[in-house]
Amino acid sequence: MRFKPSACAFIAFAAFFAAMAAFVFWGTWSLDAAPVMPDCPVAHPADRLARWMDGFLASGKFVPGDIKEFLGSPYFWQELQYALALFMAALGLAYFLKGRGLSRTSSYGAGLLLAFSGYWCSLFSAGHLGWFQWMTYGVFAFALADRAARKGKLRHWILLGATLAWGSFYQPDMWLLFTVFTAAYFIFESTRMFLRARREGIVKRVAPRFALGAAAALAVFVAIGLPSFRSAIVNDLAGRDKQIASGETVAANGADEAEKRWIFVTNWSMPPEDTLEFFIPRINGDTSCQSVLALGTRQGTGVKPYTGRLGRPLGAPAGNYRQHSLYVGFVTCILAILACVKFRKTPTVVFFAAAAVVFWLFSMGRYCEPVYRIVYALPMGDYLRAPVKWHHLTEFALAALAGYGLEAVRGFLAAKGLKPRMAAYAAFAVAVVGAADLARVDSLFCAAIDLRAVRSPNPAAEKVKSLGGGKVFDLIGGGASVISWAFSSKGVDMATDGNVRFAWVGIDQMKDARMAAWLKARKAEPVAYYSVSSKGVRDAEPRNAALLLFPEVPAPAPAEKNVSSGVVALAAVSVAVTLATLLFALSAVMKGRKRVG
Questions:
Q1: Alpha carbon 106 to chain centroid distance?
Q2: What percentage of the chain exceeds 90 in pLDDT?
Q3: What is the mean pLDDT of residues 147-175?
Q4: DSSP string of 19-77?
Q5: Residue 40: left (phi > 0), alpha (psi -120 to 50), or beta?
Q6: Residue 412, burial from CB neighbour count under 10 angstroms (0-12, 13-18, 19+)
Q7: What gap in Å lies between CA 312 and CA 292, rounded to an integer?
Q8: Which of 52, 304, 482, 534 could serve as 285's disulfide partner, Cβ 3.0–4.6 Å?
Q9: Is 72 exposed, middle or buried (0-12, 13-18, 19+ CB in 10 A)?
Q10: What does the DSSP assignment read for 213-276?
Q11: Using only C-alpha atoms, what is the Rg of the chain?
């Protein structure tokens, strides 16, 4: 059986991606393990589907990826959901570059470089699942905007509206940034398309089709995205205003409201010296997350504390906080520079080169205040917290340029006498080397935690229930971990808001000076002792105990939840249009295959 060249290229791309994703998350693929992800649940209650449905009815948000909630154990999807999102981002960039006329090898190679780019990938360490949910659809939205502007086929317009809506559901700030960028590129390409149509005298033929497609995209976008827009207006913006007004997140004593808002919005600006990390990995260390550092030391990963200024409060002489890499990749950066030299007259390359510089300046926020004041003055600009987020767009622009750089490498090798196929393989090999280098750095942020203690019913849960129930602060992971669990009659859940009643401490941590001081300050004595093994948690004598349960502070009563009939109606429309769009896309793919056959 012989495969077509397109199938061979895809299989090679998928195989290399799978190998590198396996390496990044190595040690956590077991159902009994998970990476440290403070902002994302790693333990799940028995009634998780009922809870998911409650959340769905309260918000109305549904994307195709939510189908996984009904397919298998959530522990199976723990790391796979991140890997699949990265794969979709890589595939989306490859789809875009292939549409721009680049070879398959260059397009897939650039996709690999994007997927494992440091900030793009390593945010799994913080548990920012919403970012990965956006990238599942957002990169394809950019590619479809390009196809819609240049080719104008109805399926491109419909899928553009759908992917824009799906991308808006779980990461509204990043969705806004990338949507503005997508719109800028769309206007850029549409203008070029209409200028060509004018020269060819076919504007009257092109314009109606363009208008019809734009109307279809808008209709699908609104129908699917209404729940997201409602949530953004009712919940997200109101929550951000409350957060800023409280002043709890900024060191702004004596500042007026305008200055307080500026300080809040520009926290987590990228210091200029961190630009060196685009080329040189780990130049200022890795992470500030104590859990990752403690477990990484124990597991021998070599992860180092971050020593730079990112995350340092304004005016503070020391301190920082970050849970990710900024490494774009030495290979990626060199390829991007090569593209700017080789294709300096190509409009698309000029667009991405200019975008990369602008986004780099934006990512520095308060450290480049005159420039960022422009962003801050724009509509919604004073709601966009953490300017370092713009670095995502810098990575995207550089990865797209790297695709053109790979095309330059392929062309150079072919001009030197290498057979075209071998030149293409060599260019792809360059991308694989660059992606492997990125994956090596990304893997440092993967620290495995043992889930055996919480995956099944155990006497610790029964003890907590007998004492009134509540959240448990988990200090097993080492040092001052911030993982907490909620035990109830229905299973185990994870919480991160700090409202806990008990502390669960590993015996090894009892020897830690910080832990001893923490317990002494609370005058805490253990109320139960347990051992842990592959069979789960069991009662134990104090001398044989591996885990100790300490009492903590009372937790507040849970807030009442109300489900709006209006939200349910919006959700029904959104789900119906989502399913119809997926069927339409599947039908278009099958028809395309038949035509090719």
A1: 24
A2: 47
A3: 90
A4: HHHHHHTTT--STTEEE--TTS--S--TTHHHHHHHHHHHH----GGGGGGGSS-TTTH
A5: beta
A6: middle
A7: 19
A8: 304
A9: exposed
A10: HHHHHHHHHHHHHHHHHHHIIIIIHHHHHHHHHH-TTS--TT--HHHHHHHHHHSSPPPGGGGG
A11: 25
Domain positions in the chain are 5-127+247-448, 452-551
Closest CA to 91 of 189, 148, 17, 5: 17
Range with lowest mean pLDDT among 24-33, 178-187, 251-260, 533-542: 251-260
What 3 state SS string does 140-200 have? HHHHHHHHHHHCCCHHHHHHHHHHHHHHCCCCHHHHHHHHHHHHHHHHHHHHHHHHHHHHH
CA gap 179, 240 in Å, rounded: 20
Please write down the long-range contacts of 334-337, taking CB distance under 8 Å and 24 or more positions apart.
Answer: 334/405, 335/113, 335/401, 335/402, 335/404, 335/405, 335/406, 335/408, 335/409, 335/430, 335/434, 336/398, 336/401, 336/402, 336/405, 337/405
The mean of the pLDDT values for the chain is 82
Residue 455 has pLDDT above 80, yes or no: no
Helix, strand, or coil (residue 460): helix
547 strand-pairing partners? 506, 530
406 CB burial (10 A radius; 0-12, 13-18, 19+):
buried
Q: Which H or E run contains 509? A: none
Lowest mean pLDDT: which of 1-5, 252-256, 291-295, 578-582? 252-256
Q: What is the mean pLDDT of residues 347-356?
A: 97
In this structure, the strands spanning 528-533 and 547-551 are antiparallel
Half-sphere exposure of 126 (CA within 13 A, CB side): 17
Please say if the pLDDT value at position 492 is more than 60. no
* Closest by CA position to 60, among listed 214, 227, 212: 227
Per DSSP, the three-state class of 359 is helix
